[in-house]
Write a structure and sequence with these properties.
By secondary structure, this protein is α/β, with parallel strands linked by helices. The chain has 14 helices and 23 strands. It is globular, with a radius of gyration of 24 Å. The N and C termini lie far apart (80 Å). Bound molecules: nicotinamide-adenine-dinucleotide.
Amino acid sequence: MTAKDLLDALGVPAAAYATGDIAARSPIDGTPIGQVPDAGPQAMADAVERAHAAFTHWRNVPAPRRGELVRLFGEELRAHKSRLAALVTLEAGKISSEGAGEVQEMIDICDFAVGLSRQLYGLTIASERPGHRMMEQWHPLGVVGVISAFNFPVAVWAWNAALALVCGNAVVWKPSEKTPLTALATQALFERALTRFGQDAPAHLCQVVNGRAATGQALVDHPQVALLSATGSTRMGRAVGPRVAARFGRCLLELGGNNAIIVAPSADLDLAVRGIVFGAYGTAGQRCTTTRRVIAHASIHDELVARLERARASLKIGDPRETGVLIGPLVDQAAYDAMQQALAAARTQGGRVTGGERVLGGAQPQAWYAAPALVQMPAQTEVVCHETFAPILYTLRYETLDEAIALQNAVPQGLSSAIFTNDLREAEQFLSARGSDCGIANVNIGTSGAEIGGAFGGEKETGGGRESGSDAWKAYMRRATNTVNYSRELPLAQGVKFDV
Ligand code: NAD
């Protein structure tokens, strides 16, 4: 199906992607698939104001009823899963099963949020004063701004929006300028859910505003945006975080990763090879949780690298819609150029590189397919400490677990990490306070991808935000501490005397 067929079927009118200065191109072959306008700062400000009006209504709707809207949206996603997934593949270049997996994540977070809508629990707290009761309540926050990256063009918005909505907020979404069409399609599905929901959902509860960084910045700076959830590069986070802080807004940052897998002497190497190859080369290395470093014990390093090299060389690269293809295109030429620069730097810094060359350039001159690269490094040099958003896997060797953990932690990013070991002591040390410093630490599974049930996010330059499962919902609400006096006295706290 063409992009137009898919967008028609998903309910997006052709006029919505017929003109404008942002051209959507399919990374599969570089062909234009639509154009949308860059809305600009004023249109963004207007959208925030409309969202704020919607919020003042939505916060009064009981949370379980708010959950019903998210349940209906989940139904729309289920009904249209294959079409939206095909559009993700077309616009972001993911292989078909990963496109489907992305939409499945949206469905999963809707299910999670529906349950959550009846579980926004506060605490009751023992008061030190007789005849008094203390408690904590969680209230809706306001407008939640969502800025998303191209590589999860719809799931990241859904992680935020599903929770934000049951928590009583309105949402304004600035998607990546590389993936505006999947955003329009998601919005169309949401509007179907709204129509079925009925009158108590206000207009403009969820809006999408396409545009580039300047349009995003208007969302960042708007005083009515109570929470700005921004997913993208550390460079973007550095620009956005201080601006939100300057107006005392709340920020939830989900930025770059540089994820490592430690492979210990006792590891099941069959398992490790599968986990590493999917982690490093799946999604053509364009996940925040992509495995970028392997830190292998000296006793198994050479065998592991030989097996990784065999697997790497066997991966089928090509049109991500074709059966059997595991590696699709890079998103654009800039991504390919950045990959080549990193490989050149790795060679200069002593790396032995296999792969990394452009492939299918003859058949697809407007698309950027690259062979995945394996780079044996003599040490964790400067280039290894950077996130290059491409399928490059660096390998390093270690002698002691302390040394491996120190290497794993010695990068500026702190998103995902893993150890393959069958030694209980090693596994527990890796998970302990003196182990991995990442937001995600795994044993005998890789770094890539995560279930929505856990809180997702990372430390250091990854930004410190947490979204999706566990108690991440608390970021989308404000906490009020309440004390109620049901006695006939007015004792002061800490025994203070102030008789009048
Ligand atoms: P990017 O930083 O180029 O763009 C991300 C979004 O930020 C886009 O919507 C862009 O328009 C917007 N933006 C950029 N500068 C801005 C500014 N100054 N003000 C407001 N908005 C601005 O990232 P990308 O290339 O789309 O995505 C890849 C990056 O995203 C990688 O670094 C990857 O690790 C990261 N990522 C992180 C997570 C996570 O959960 N930690 C998830 C997905 C992607």
